[in-house]
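Might I ask for a little of your time on a matter of protein folding? What I wish to show you is a protein chain and, alongside it, a tokenised description of its three-dimensional fold. I should value your view on which stretches of the chain appear to form regular backbone elements. You will find the record immediately after this paragraph:
***
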Amino acid sequence: MTVSEIRSLMLEKVIPESLLPQNIAVCLMDENAAPPELDAFTFLNRLRSLGIGSADFLYLLKGCGAPEEAVSKIEQHPDMNLQTLIVTLESSGLTPKDYTRMLYTARQLWEHTITMRIDSGELEAAAESRQEEQPEPQDPAGSEESTVQEAPEAEESTPEESAETTEPTEPTEPSEPPRPVRTARQKKRRTEESYEDESPEQEAPVLTARQKKRTIDDLAEELGIAAEIEDEPEEKYTARQRKRRKEETAPETEPEQPAEVREDSPKARRNAIIAAAAGAAVLFAIDPLMVILGFTAPGSSGGEFQFASDNAAVFSEIYTAYTNGRISSEKTQKLSKNEQIFGDMLINSGKELGVFSSGNTLWSAEPDGISVYALDSGGLAAHVLPPEGAEFVNVVQTDSGVTAVYSGDAECGLIGVDGSGEIWSCGQSGTLTDIFCGEDIIRLGSVYTPGFTKSFTVDDVLEYLPYGSKNGQLTAFSPAEIAVSGSADGCSYAVWGEYAAENGEQKKRLAALGSPIYSGAESFTAAMTRENGSAELTSDGGSLVSAALPEITACAAGNGVIADAEIYDGGVTVYLRDSALKPLAAFTTGGEIDHLRISGNVVYVGSGGSTVMAVDISDTSSPKALDLTSADGVVSGDYALCGAVSKTGITLTLYKLESKKAVQADSFAKALTASELESFRFSGTNCFVINGTDCSGAAYRYFDGVSVVDEFAELGRSRSLHTLYDDKTGYTGAAVVDGSLKLLSGDKILN
């Protein structure tokens, strides 16, 4: 049974107030039907939308037979966090049908709160309002027609009125119009029937917030079900057995009273008001448990993803989405900054890609190209460019050379470079959103929207399907590699591929059709926008797992954890989930979030292009915000070199990691005038070099009023300045090769 079907049943069915919570499922559901897809997390989501607070939450648990140990734990710890609450419920032995029974009971409390929370004053006001709407009695000397028309209206009685009224109604004189007072049930139905006024002493008082603290036994007694409980034999019965016993013992001649027809007696009205008061306390009381329930945003409905049966299934969904104007998401998450945690510091390396060496070859990688140098000749051997419109974003060293990851607007991929230049390339469609580098594999996540620049048929697969490439040869994904939902949410794809770092051989690939904002790299993970809310999709153990969620503004996957920023009630909450999309924990940031990244055990939270928070998730059940100092520099192993500019000059500081703290190991300072500082900049993207305390340093450039000065400040044993004057190129890279410092300038190696 789907969530939408459950909600429809809740709206259609009316549950008698005397029915025990244990028996609600028997009343509303076929015992032979498949259990609804409800777990603890989804159950709490639905309770949040109904505004259920702590007292009634405990009432639901007790009424459905939850183990006393679990109930006591929740009752004794009102400040319990979300994760602990979910774990407590899941370990209590409650089944999907138990959650459904509680959900239906909560729905009834909510409906009573809306329709029956009326005290005597409100009834009086309603009666006066209705009386004002009645026609004024005509003067005895007036029209006889008016008098004759009014009499039947006062004396007529409907069958429903007869069934719900316990006292006979006295005829009303035509000159005295009846005083109509609507009961709670009449107000809910909004009918035009008129009823006899009820005496004030028949009205039971509406319960206050303090009264919601009553025990389950008190509620049972006041609802008139205590006798039923006491009369039960000591032997325990299931809900189905109780139903059968009632049917067997009931007189055959006495028909079952429909739920819509209820006795309008003081006792019946009292039962209704008690139920309504309990619901009223739920809606208006604020307590710790309600905060916990409110911490979890309700999910939205959506289709289930499955792999396409054939190309026609993909083509049809694209056609529908395109026709409906759902082409692609405009909120695709961009690739993150090159930032990393170093002790108690958050270090931003900008676009630093690095300088690598092996044997007689040196590679200097920058976003716009990779320069290959021959150490024996001291000059440039080759220069490799990324594809047109793309740039290099990451480089790893391999046995044969280096492998660079590139990203463009329509394609991303890998390029392998040896000592002579490019040797191979591979790629996949889409803009890069995530990278994962393992020992010998590289995984890429991208978001791809086909160009749709010309008409095509289902046979023109490269026009509408994602593709992979090897050395320029394109191959479209097969239907078995593409997940579709059938809801036609968009024409874009979340694309995922795994490649061998050494030669670019594609090992695995998957894609999902819709309107993605993010595609993860460590494992196949997609965050999709939908017309109402969002959807999240993973491949857990080879099978697809999806979940409908509120609007997602950012997503990240890494280290077996998925993080997504969801909007609910105007706020943003970051949720942590496992690979099966089960919730682990959550935290708030206090502002908008447009970017998330997971590296190691840290979640980086970004807004407006800047990292605003870093959260430690080494214990996924208890995320902790980190207090970090931001700096610009480069990290290499246990060392980090940071550069800073002040009003009086510049400083270079070498830090060493000790006991998870960044401890200063060396430093360099240079005083500069105000005019020199105006022209100052750190040079290039590869001009920070770290070789511990033996040799570390950085290059920079400034104008001293006479010449353009390029300097490389070397820290360590030699501790010296390497200076160039009025050099057009300046320093473009630096590296330590076999213990010797190598400075790069254009196509030359400077010794």
